[in-house]
Every structure is written in structure tokens, then in C-alpha cells.
Amino acid sequence: MIATSAGLVPGDSGGPLLSAAGHVIGVDAVGSVGYASRSSGGYAIPINQAISIVKLIRAGTTTAKIHVGGTALLGVALTAATNGLTVNSAVDGGPAATAGITTGALLTSFDGQSIGDLPKLRSVLFLHHPGDTITVGYLDPAGIETTATVVLGDGPPQ
């Protein structure tokens, strides 16, 4: 990121950051608002990095930080537990519930990867799209280890 003292304000994100010579050197990303809404600077993505990201998006390439297309949904509310993620609730008729995953289950793996915390699940889920079929490993509420095949649903835009 490029730190700038330019007067970035909310709404400037995505605009060009110009050098004193008028050359585009970055893409405005974060503005900082001080007392009485006066800008106190902000941050921009260096233009070479922004161009690399644009090329990946145009190619339809998904990475751990770039998501192209619809957002996948598992349809559960979770909390971290010692050995996985506890299902606090599953959306009725949602992908997890349809696959048999119920409240009280302990999710332990997602698409073959161990999931010990919410950031790990988000990063693995982010690589998928609505309609993808994945395998979820879990302990049911009785403690029986099992797996479920889940067809991911449509989630909110990211």
C-alpha cells in the first residue's frame, strides 16, 4: 500500500492516485476522515499491483484473495471450538441442512482440508462457487464421525 497525504474522502476508492507530474501511480483504496469530515490522508494500491489484479480478474482466476463470480454459501452459523467449528444453527432448507448437518455438529474438514477456525473455513469456501459439490467432515451431535456431500448455495456478494 502507498500511504498518501492526498485528501482522500469516502467515495474516492477506485479512483487514481496521481504523482505530482500527473502520472497514475496507484488506485485509491482507503480514505481516513478526521475531525469534522476533513480528510487526513489515506492509502492506495500501487498501480503495478492493481494491473496484476485486473489481469487475474479478466482471466477469471480465483485466488485466496481474489474471488471471481458468485459467492458460495454453506448456510450455517458457527463458533470456534477446540477441534473445529460448532454449528450453532443451520438454515432450514440450506445446503448444510439439506446434506444432514444439524445444530450441534462439529465441522472438522471442508473439501478435504482441516478447518480449525473461521478464517480457514472462509479462505477455503472463498475458492468455491454456488453449485459446487464439496465434502464436509464432521462429528454429529452424538460424537459420531461422518461426512456429508454438500451442494453449495448462493451467498451474498463479496
What is the CATH level 1 assignment of the largest domain? Mainly Beta
**CATH homologous superfamily placement of the largest domain:** PDZ domain
- Main sheet specs: 6 strands, antiparallel
- What is the fold-level CATH name, i.e. the topology of the largest domain? Pdz3 Domain
What are the low-pLDDT stretches, counting only 5+ consecutive residues below 50? none
Output mean pLDDT. Answer: 88
The helix-strand sequence is EEEEHEEEHEEHEEE
Structural category: alpha+beta
Number of discrete domains: 2
Distinct helical segment count? 3
Radius of gyration: 21 Å
What level of helicity do the residues show? 10-25%
β-strand percent reads: 35-45%
What's the shape? elongated
CATH architecture verdict of the largest domain: Roll
Total count of strands: 12
Distance between the termini: 21 Å
Features:
4-stranded antiparallel sheet, 39% strand, alpha+beta, 158 residues, Thrombin, subunit H, Pdz3 Domain, 2 domains, single chain, 3 helices, 6-stranded antiparallel sheet
